[in-house]
Design a protein that fits this description.
Acyl-CoA thioesterase, alpha+beta, 4-hydroxybenzoyl-CoA_TE, six-stranded antiparallel sheet, fatty acyl-CoA hydrolase activity, about 140 residues, Thiol Ester Dehydrase, Chain A, HotDog_dom_sf, hydrolase
């Protein structure tokens, strides 16, 4: 279950770790970290109005992640996206996978780039109003 957290940042999401997320080593498999981030990114895109039936959506152009420590069950992870840059038709985000109950515990950190596209699949530049909306989501 994903929970949007009212942190004032507008890009913080809590996700409960499921038993099925564990691998044979009894910790959350590294591919699942990307699924948690994906779920939070979709929630963020919803806040930005970038999901169908909107004429604009987003595609992931880059994703990288450094794994810092294992996530064990039971846990609730907190995904935090921080805005690094707004490009012509993209946004660059720093992402953190942390513990929702212990702010000082970070499981992974990385970066992703989303590109805004139109229904035909071409990149679609941000309007000035959309740029303001992006900044407002991240400023709370």
């Amino acid at each position: 279950m994903t929970q949007v957290v009212d942190s004032g940042a507008g890009a913080t999401f809590d996700i409960a770790v499921r038993w099925g997320d564990l691998d044979a080593m009894n910790h959350v498999n590294n591919t699942v970290y990307f699924r948690y981030i994906e779920e939070a990114r979709v929630q963020l895109m919803m806040k930005l109005g970038m999901v169908p039936p909107s004429p604009r959506t987003g595609v992931l152009a880059h994703a990288s992640l450094d794994f810092l420590r294992s996530i064990l069950y039971p846990a609730t992870v907190r995904i935090v996206h921080k805005l690094l840059k707004v490009g012509g038709s993209s946004i660059e985000l720093e992402v953190f996978v942390g513990d929702a109950n212990q702010a000082d515990v970070i499981y992974a950190r990385g970066r992703c780039v989303l590109v805004s596209i139109n229904p035909q699949g071409g990149s679609q530049p941000w309007t000035e109003d959309e740029r303001k909306q992006i900044h407002s989501v991240f400023q709370g």
